[in-house]
Amino acid sequence: MLSPVNVSLESLNLITLAPMLIPIVGALLILVIDIIKGGLDKTLYVVLSILFLALDFGALLDAAGVFTKDGIVLGVFNVMLIDGLAILSQFIIVATSMLFIPLALTNKRFHEFSYPEFFALFLFMIAGFQFMVASDNLILIFVGLETASLALYTLIAMHNRDKSFEAAVKYFTMGALAAGFYSFGSMVFYALTGSIEINQIATILAANGYVDIGFVLVGVVFLLASFAFKLSIVPFHTWTPDVYEGSSAAMAGYMSIVPKIAAFVVAMRLFEFLIHSNVVWLEVVLYAFVVITMTAANMWALVQTDVKRMLAYSSISHAGFVMAAILIGTTQSNSALFLYWILFSFTNLGSFSMLWISRQKQLPGYQKTDHSFEKFSGMIKTSPMAAIVMAIFMLSLAGLPPFALFWGKIYMISSAVTSGYTVLALIMALNSAIAGYYYIKLIVYMFMKDPIESNIDNNGELYVANATTALKTIIGFAIIATIFAFLAIDPLLEFVTSFVYNSGY
Questions:
Q1: Which domain range does residue 383 map to?
Q2: Domain annotation covers residue 237
C-alpha cells in the first residue's frame, strides 16, 4: 500500500502563484457584486479592476524581490516559474492593462462597458496571460493561452457591431487552429522526450545529440505556426486587420501589445534553445519570417485608406521587427526586445486611444469607415492640440529621434550588428524608412489638407467626442513617456538587462 505524501505549503512556494490569483479573485468579486446588486455604475468596476491590478503589480514586486535574492524560483510542484522573463513580461502585461481600463470611462455610452462581465473577463484574460509567461510547462502555457484567448474573443464580440461579431468569429476560428497546432507540436516533443517542461526537453534533446531531428522538425513547425498566428507573422496574419477593425480602437490597441508580449516570451523559451543548438533550418525559417513580415506588412500599410487598418498592418510590421530578437538569441537582443516593447506599449496605446476618443456612432456621408484618413483632414485647424499629439505618436512609431521608439529600434538594430546579422540590420533600417511614409501620410492629412466642411461645423468636437478627464490623463501619460523616454533609456535598459541576464534562457 502506498504511503500518503505530505505536501507542506512552504514547499509549494505559493508566492509564484499569487500574481495570477489576484486578478482571478477580482473577477469573481465583480461577478458576485453584480449578482447581489445589478445595474451599478461602470465606474465602480473600473476602480475595482484598477485596484486588483495594483495589488497584482505589488505581488509582482514581491516576486521580483524574491527572484533578485534567490535567483530562479520554482513553485506549485515545479510548474510555476519565476525568472527574469516571467517578471518583466508580467510587469508589461499588468502595467498596460492598468492604462487600458480607464479607457472605459468615455463620454458616450458604449455597449460593452455597461456589463460587469466585461471587466471580469478582462481580469480572467490577464491571469491567463500571466500563466502563459510564468511557466515552462507546455500544458500550463496552453491553459493560460486558451483562458486568455477565450476571454478575448468574447470581449471583442461585446463591442456589439456587425463587424465586431465577424471579427470575434474570425479570431476564434484562427485561434482554434493555432491551439490545434500548439497541441500537436507539444505532443511531438512529449513523445520524443517524455517531458512537457521546456528546460527538460532542451536537456534531453541535447543529450541525445538531436538524433530524431526529423521529428523535432515536425514539432517545431507546428509550434512555430501556432505562435506565428498569435504574433501575426506573415503569412499567418490575415485575421489581424479585420479583427482590429471590428474591435473598439481601445481594444485593438491593447491586442497589439499584451497578447504579443506573452507569445514572444513563450516563443523565446521554446525556440532559442534550438537556435543555440545550431538547428540551422530553424534559423533560416525565422530569418525569412522576420524579413517577409516586416516588408510585406509595410507594403500593405502603404495602400490603406483607414487609419485603424494602417495601424493594424503597422503592428504586424513591428512584431516582425521584434521577432528578430528571437532569431539572434543573445542577452542583448532579448533585452532589446523588452525595451522595444515597453516603449512601443506607450506609443501604440496612445495612438489607438486617440482613435478611441474620436469614435463616432453615426458616420457622415463622406466617411466610408470610422477612421478614414479623410476624417483627419485639416485637423490642425479644427483641433490643433489633438493633431499635435497624434503627430507625435506617428513620428515615434516611425522611429524618428528623439521619440521613444527610435531608441528601441536603435538597440534592436545594434544587437543584430553585434551578433553578425549585418544584412538583417540593413533590412530592418530600410523597413523603418519605408514605414515612415505611411505614418507621415496621416500627418500630411492633419497638417496640410483643408478640413472637411462638416468638421469645421463641429468645431473640432469630432476628434475628442469621447474625451473625459480619465482618457485625457492616459493619453497625457503616453505622450510624456513618448517624448521624454530618452531620459529613462539607460536605467530602463539596465533594469531590463538585469532580469534577462538572470533568466536562464
A1: 12-360+369-501
A2: yes
Please calculate the CA angle 153-155-156 and round it to the nearest 5 degrees.
65
Any domain includes 5? no
Segment 455-462 shows an average pLDDT of: 57
Q: What's residue 53's pLDDT?
A: 93
pLDDT digits (tens, 9 = 90+) for 280-334: 788 888 899 999 999 999 999 988 888 888 999 999 999 999 999 998 888 888 8
H or E segment to which residue 92 belongs = helix 84-100
Q: Tell me the one-letter amino acid at 25.
A: V
* Phi, psi angles (nearest 5°) of residue 188: -60, -45
Strand partners, 197: 137
SS3 485: helix
Count of CB atoms situated within 10 Å of the CB of 463 = 23
Q: What is the pTM (predicted TM-score) of this model?
A: 0.90
**In this structure, is residue 271 part of a structural domain?**
yes
Pairing relationship of beta strands 80-82 and 73-75 according to DSSP bridges: antiparallel
- Which range among 228-237, 439-448, 451-460 shows the weakest confidence by mean pLDDT? 451-460
| CA 23 from centroid of its chain's CA atoms | 18
HEC per residue, 117-167: HHHHHHHHHHHHHHHHHCCCEHHHHHHHHHHHHHHHHHHHHCCCCHHHHHH
| 232 located within any domain | yes
Query: 197 φ, ψ to 5°?
Result: -100, 130
Q: Per-residue DSSP letters for 320-384?
A: HHHHHHHHH-SHHHHHHHHHHHHHHHHHHHHHHHHHHHT--SS--TT-SSTTBGGGGTTHHHH-H
Residue 290 · residue 424 · CB < 8 Å: yes
Burial 230-268 (b: 16+ CB within 10 A, else e): bbbbbebbebbbbbbbbbbbbbbbbbbbbbbbbbbbbbb
| Number of domains forming the structure of the chain | 1
* Cα separation, 293 vs 236, whole angstroms: 10
